[in-house]
Design brief:
About 35% of the residues lie in helices and about 10% in strands. By secondary structure, it is of the alpha/beta class. The chain has a single domain, classed as Uracil-DNA glycosylase-like domain (Uracil-DNA Glycosylase, subunit E). The strands form 3 sheets. It has a 6-stranded mixed beta sheet with strand order 1-3-2-4-6-5, with helices on both faces. A two-stranded antiparallel ribbon has the order 7-8. Strand 7 and strand 8 form a beta hairpin. The termini are far apart. The relative contact order is 0.11.
Length: about 300
């Protein structure tokens, strides 16, 4: 079996062709050298394993209504296994949440041949090769962008986009801006649990902290928080068919009446109520989350 076959098996022909191109890409010399060096040196826990050490293609259901935008492969996760969010702690967090909300057939993702199947969900990344210090250069991000443009064109049933982190959100918005669908990215601010409709007829965009080990180990992102994001997606998809209009969620709507994308929104401390009577996650900024943790710690200390 060829290196790309295990990552593209079962996809519709156009996506299969695209993923094969991604796997064989060598546009960025710095990233090529870095991904291959990681595979050569290896982490002690995985010593002796054959590292993928190639660009990581998209993964999931080609007819998905949910698109998940990530950042880049992990050094000893995707860069080792060859599948998005596979073989590291980030994947453990993400796929458990997807399994709990019905988007995956199992909660664990260990290798490309572990039987994991995504249902109604597809995962892509802003950058397809592992970057040094998890920081891709601007020109590297731009070199990967044509892949994302083609994926968005092929994934025609997408109704909701979940952006895992601010960089992922910016990558998605950049494609919309380059295509003329939005004039500016500035009005769409990242905040966990926030969201918005970017343009008429476009997918609803929801924002979540990235399930990186740094975010999950510090409590910035908990399993319950990530579950709530995908539970909201599940509720939204249940609203109606492909012509359903998804109500606006405003990431920057921290005060009542703030206009977003030309539409007024309202905000309550706990929930944002949509026009169809469903409940949404309230936008959760980093400062708000940190404040809650401090209050919780103070309350716990007072009980001892």
């Amino acid at each position: 079996m060829t290196p790309s076959a295990t990552s593209t098996a079962g996809l519709a022909p156009p996506l299969h062709v695209l993923n094969d191109e991604i796997v064989h890409c060598s546009r960025c010399p710095r990233l090529v050298a870095h991904r291959e060096e990681i595979g050569r040196v290896q982490k002690r826990a995985y010593r002796g394993q054959e590292y993928w050490s190639r660009p990581v293609p998209g993964f999931g259901d080609p007819f998905a209504r949910l698109l998940i935008m990530g950042l880049a492969p992990g050094a000893h996760g995707s860069n080792r296994t060859g599948r998005a969010f596979t073989g590291d702690r980030s994947g453990e967090f993400l796929y458990r949440a997807l399994w709990e909300t019905g988007f995956a057939n199992q909660p664990r993702s260990l290798s490309r041949d572990d039987g994991l199947v995504l249902k109604d969900a597809y995962i892509v990344a802003s950058v397809r090769c592992v970057p040094p210090d998890n920081k891709p250069l601007r020109e590297e991000t731009l070199a990967c962008r044509p892949f994302l443009v083609r994926e968005l064109a092929l994934l025609r049933k997408v109704r909701i986009v979940v952006a895992l982190g601010g960089i992922a959100l910016d990558a998605y918005l950049s494609v919309l801006q380059d295509s003329g669908l939005i004039r500016s990215r500035a009005q769409f601010r990242f905040a966990h649990g926030g969201g918005f409709e970017t343009h008429p007829g476009g997918p609803l965009v929801l924002c979540s902290y990235h399930p990186s080990q740094q975010n999950t180990s510090t409590g910035r992102l908990t399993a319950a928080m990530l579950h709530d994001i995908f539970n909201t997606v599940r509720e939204r998809l249940a609203v109606g068919d492909s012509d359903a209009r998804y109500p606006v969620l405003a990431a920057e709507a921290v005060v009542e009446g703030t206009p977003v994308a030309g539409r007024p929104v309202t905000h309550s401390p706990e929930l944002i109520h949509s026009q169809v009577g469903r409940k949404e996650l309230a936008p959760d900024t980093e400062g708000q989350e940190a404040g809650r943790r401090r209050r919780s710690q103070t309350s716990a200390a007072s009980r001892h």
